[in-house]
Design brief:
Length: 507
């Protein structure tokens, strides 16, 4: 594997993505917790950082355990750090070095750079630049403005590059990463979904005792479903899936998802707890209070159901890699914008050990593994859906009647997206029921009914998002259908806010 030492750059996860696309396994570790060099680490990448090596408190770890032992590639800050530590001169750049640049001189015979043509576009994003290289460092590529765009340390497989090969704007970035990972580090490109499934099934069988029972909360989403399939393959019916109907699911979702799990042969039990959730939510209007009530009730219901499983030792979770690695926060912990409800606090309460088979995977890798395990297309490509469900899409207090109205409007929107081939073009979509009534006219009648907002976004990871530019004709059709078919709604609006500053959900 390749080890990526993270210095807090926004691009660190992208480095991991690029390496994994080469079918090579890699892990990100914060520089403050750099692991010992073991035999399976074939190479090290030093990430970028928002810091400058010239700042007194900038990351400055001792890298001697790696240097000269395995190939090392410093990217941006990583490159500047190596130069700085060895007596080179890193200064503020006099010309802005952000955005596109072209490599005009390249040592094409160099094994890090072969396949890169002169003129190759690269993406720069740094305020500092390497002015003078230390003794024993050789420049191997440059741009008109940046003399040392890439260097090597003589006699070692240690390299530094000041541009970002991991972003798609660096057109030969993939080639460069491949040169490093495959040619220089000698990694085999054998980390495939099938390989992952085989290795994970064996690992799960080794970890989970032969008579241990495992509990897993299922949501109908990709992550928990893939986790279930992996565990099912490893331990069969000793996996006990629990799927809770919180009364805030999409229309027909509960029945549909249970049926799909049945077809897959999974041992999953459905629990209809709608009334308990409605009771806990009665009269609550504040978004955070609603989220907390839903979270609390979920834990109560899940705990009660889990107690019924004799011999339960493990709680499985569909945690994925982005949940695990938060890029090192150089500026302190991030603020909580919304308290996400999933199963936080559950394991301590239940005294179970945790097993997380997807911990090492990015979302699209989870999909590939799901595909290899035969998960049907409709679950594999399902939009993300928040744990608190329609509870955070009904603004104000929640009643079963409002849920029923929203379910019908939401189904019209989602079915419409599917029918027009738009569903998989957007990252997530749904309808918000607003606590606003407006006047309308239907036939000769005056109406005074509720407003819904359609929300559809494009995104890569949900962290940032843009409103989806859906065709007007399509929006018109959905609006007509909702107003004609859903009693209680007489006005439909489309949300054209991006995230930030808005969020995807309205609460
Ligand atoms: P926001 O509204 O913060 O949402 O832009 C970002 C993504 O997270 C989902 N979301 C949640 N998912 N539990 C979840 O499992 C939650 O409490 C929760 N709140 C928001 C949201 O649907 C979007 O995909």
């Amino acid at each position: 594997q390749i080890l990526i030492l993270d210095f807090g750059s926004q691009y660190t996860q992208l480095i991991a993505r690029r390496i994994r696309e080469l079918n090579v396994y890699c892990e990100i570790h914060p520089y403050t917790h750099a692991p010992l060099l073991t035999e399976d680490i074939r190479g090290v990448v030093l990430s970028g950082s928002p810091c400058s090596v010239r700042e007194a408190d900038a990351p400055n770890p001792d890298l001697s355990a790696y240097l000269g032992q395995v190939p090392v590639l410093g990217v941006c800050y990583g490159a500047q750090l190596l130069a700085h530590q060895n007596g080179g001169e890193v200064l503020p750049a006099t010309i802005r070095e952000y955005g596109r640049a072209r490599l005009t001189h390249i040592n094409q015979h160099h094994r890090l750079l072969h396949g890169l043509e002169p003129g190759s576009q690269v993406w720069m994003s740094h305020g500092d630049t390497i002015k003078t290289l230390p003794d024993g460092f050789l420049a191997i590529a440059g741009t008109p403005d940046v003399q040392v765009a890439a260097y090597e340390i003589e006699g070692q497989s240690t390299y530094g590059i000041q541009f970002h090969p991991e972003v798609t704007h660096s057109t030969d970035g993939k080639q460069l990463m491949k040169n490093f990972v495959v040619d220089v580090c000698g990694c085999q490109q054998d980390w495939t979904p099938e390989h992952f499934v085989d290795a994970m099934v064996t690992a799960l069988q080794d970890t989970i005792g032969e008579t241990d029972q495992v509990i897993l909360g299922l949501s109908g989403g990709v992550d928990s479903s893939v986790a279930a399939l992996l565990l099912h393959r490893a331990i069969g019916p000793r996996l006990h899936g629990i799927f809770v109907d919180n009364g805030l699911l999409r229309k027909d979702e509960y029945e549909g998802v249970l049926e799909a799990y049945k077809v897959l042969g999974l041992n999953v039990r459905g629990v209809d707890a709608s009334q308990e959730f409605y009771a806990a939510l009665a009269g609550l209007t504040d978004p955070e209070q609603k989220r907390k009530a839903i979270g609390r009730t979920f834990i109560e219901v899940f705990d009660r159901e889990a107690q019924k499983v004799e011999g339960a030792r493990w709680l499985a979770q569909g945690t994925i890699y982005p949940d695990v690695i938060e890029s090192v926060s150089v500026k302190g912990p991030a603020v909580t914008i919304k308290s996400h409800h999933n199963v936080g606090g559950l394991p301590e309460k239940m005294n179970l050990k945790i097993v997380e088979p997807l911990r090492a995977l990015f979302k699209d890798e989870v999909r590939e593994v799901g595909d290899a395990l035969g998960l049907p297309h409709n679950i594999l490509h399902r939009h993300p859906f928040p744990g608190p469900g329609l509870g955070i899409r009904i603004l104000g207090d929640i009643t079963p009647e409002k849920v029923a109205i929203l379910q019908r409007a939401d189904a019209i929107f989602i079915d419409g997206l599917k029918a027009h081939g738009l569903y998989e073009k957007v990252w997530q979509a749904g309808v918000m029921l607003l606590p606003v009534q407006s006047v309308g006219v239907m036939g000769d009648e005056r109406t005074y009914e509720q407003v819904v907002a359609l929300r559809a976004v494009t995104s890569v990871d949900g962290m940032t998002a843009d409103w989806a530019h859906l065709p007007y004709d399509f929006l018109a059709e959905v609006s007509n259908k909702i107003i004609n078919q859903v009693r209680g709604i007489n006005r439909v609006v489309y949300d054209i806010s991006s995230k930030p500053p808005a969020t995807i959900e309205w609460e």
